[in-house]
Each structure stands twice: as C-alpha cells, then as structure tokens.
C-alpha cells in the first residue's frame, strides 16, 4: 500500500510522531528505568537520554542506558515505517550535546512496510522472562534468522560455542556475586524493580 502524496501528507503530524514515541512504553530497558525522553519538533523526533534515570552503581558508564535507548530507537523507527513514513536517522548529531542520541527526520511518505507492521503488533506483547535458560542448543535455522535480523540493523551476533560455556558460566556467577555483595547495587535493584 502506498501513502497518498498530497502536500498535506508530505510531513507527519505531531500525533504520528508522538504515537511512534509512545511505543517506548514497551521497550526493554535496564531495570525498566526507561532512561529516555522524546521531543517532537516539526517533522523531527529527537531521542535524548534522561540522566535522572541512569543507574550510578549498576551502569556508571551508561552502556546499559545506551543499549536501552537503542531498543526504543528501534521501536520508533519500526512504528514510523509501519504507517508509511520514510525517515533518516542521525545518530549522535551534536557531539557537544551527549544527551541527544538521535534525530529521526521524516523525509516523506513511503510504502507501508508490512514486516514493520508485524513487528509493531509484537511490541506490546514483549515480556521479561527471568527464568533459567534451558540446556538445549538453539537450532541453526533460528540462529541464521537471528544473524540476518541483527545484520539488517548493522550489528554483529556473536554465538557462544559449547566449549566457551563453562568459562561464561563462571564469569557470570562471579559478576552476580560481586553485584549482590554490593549494598549500593542491591539498593538500585530494590528501587527500580
């Protein structure tokens, strides 16, 4: 389906951009802190960090905050594609403003992206699952689909080999013990979860 190309439909309304930003309510984030803010200006949706939601003990370098904001950026991009808007994403557009992570600039109407529509439908169904992982290996076909999805986003998927699992388990257990032994970490965990 193609969007109409009349002048009035060449730029989205603030409501369209705000609806894309609302998908952030469902995005995963460290301790569910939702460490972002959105600002709509004309045909631009700006993604900013919210430093009041940074975890000083758990995430002093803001790596998890940045990953969380990456998830919400994805949700907004997909939401706009699903309703037929082409966008350009400018990441870290102002080096002197480190809280400004991205600008999504709508560039005009586009064909409605059916795949994006399916992803948007799935966004509110996402759930956190803290159960222990099973010991069955992930099927190669599933890994292939994951690799394709990750590479489509310009990233790389590293799959841990079976011979690496024991070292990863030991490292993970040590990290968990260190975190849980820190009263400041336990307080952040209590406060946010």
List the helices and strands and how they pair.
Elements: H1 14-22, E1 36-41, E2 44-49, H2 63-82, E3 85-91, E4 100-109, H3 114-122, H4 140-152, H5 165-180, H6 183-192
Antiparallel strand pairs: 1-2, 2-4, 3-4
GO molecular function, one term: oxidoreductase activity
Protein name: Nitroreductase
Quick synopsis:
This protein has 193 residues and is of the alpha+beta class. Helices cover 40% and strands 15% of the residues. It folds into 2 domains: 1-126, NADH Oxidase (3-Layer(aba) Sandwich); 137-193, no CATH class.
Explain the overall architecture.
There is one protein chain. Mean pLDDT is 92; it is low at 1-8. Helix 1 packs across helix 2 (63-82) and helix 2 (63-82) packs across helix 3 (114-122). 19% of the residues are buried. The termini are far apart. Helices cover 40% and strands 15% of the residues. The chain is built from six helices and four strands, in the order H-E-E-H-E-E-H-H-H-H. Strands 1-2-4-3 form a four-stranded antiparallel beta sheet, with helices on one face. It has 193 residues and is of the alpha+beta class. The chain has two domains: 1-126, NADH Oxidase (3-Layer(aba) Sandwich); 137-193, no CATH class. The protein is globular. It has helices at residues 14-22, 63-82, 114-122, 140-152, 165-180, 183-192; strands at 36-41, 44-49, 85-91, 100-109.
Looking at this structure, what is the CATH superfamily of the largest domain?
NADH Oxidase
Q: Write down the Rg.
A: 19 Å
What oligomeric assembly is this protein in?
single chain
Counting structural domains, the number is: 2
Q: Total strand count, please?
A: 4
Protein name: Nitroreductase
InterPro entries: Nitroreductase-like (IPR000415)
GO molecular function, one term: oxidoreductase activity
